[in-house]
Design brief:
mainly alpha
Length: 82
Amino acid sequence: MMREVKYKSLIDAVKIVFGENKKYDNVKKILTILISLGFIAYEDRFSKIKSMRGKAFFRYSDDDGVMRKGFFLDGLKQRMRA
């Protein structure tokens, strides 16, 4: 995400990708982490979420093996908790 976006628009995009019938509480947690790391700025619920980085986090030309392993391990962790 490089452009400014409102929180509602972000949630709408996440719903399109992952489906309408899910809870999106994790989005708030992820935003909190990104704010604390200084990657994004989000002043209040009426402001836009702004990227503080000069380039994208992931480019399609990057090797996605590390990212795939991370998603796989996260999926295993979630299943172990169930």
